[in-house]
Design goal:
Elements lengths: L8 H8 L3 H26 L4 H8 L3 H8 L7 H10 L10
Helix pairs in contact: 3-4, 3-5
Length: 95
Amino acid sequence: MRNKLYYTFEDHLKESLKDPEFRKVWKDSELEYKLACQLIEKRLAKKMSQRDLAKKVKTTQAVISRLETMNENPSLSLLKRIAQALGTKINLQIE
């Protein structure tokens, strides 16, 4: 990374995952992280604020905020309403 002009999140994550303790914490929260990122990405692609999405889903902006900051575990029914409001679908699999 010596010749790099910038340090990305991916660079930081790759380096951090070398630590076994961090790797376990990351693995335990990876699903929530991916969900939060996808929610934010889809919402912004639709040019919606958290408040706009909350209105469509019939919840509060605070709930959307907590989902996007990984501070809330959503129910499947809430995820379905969010997906519908964003004009997308949920792809769930158990491996």
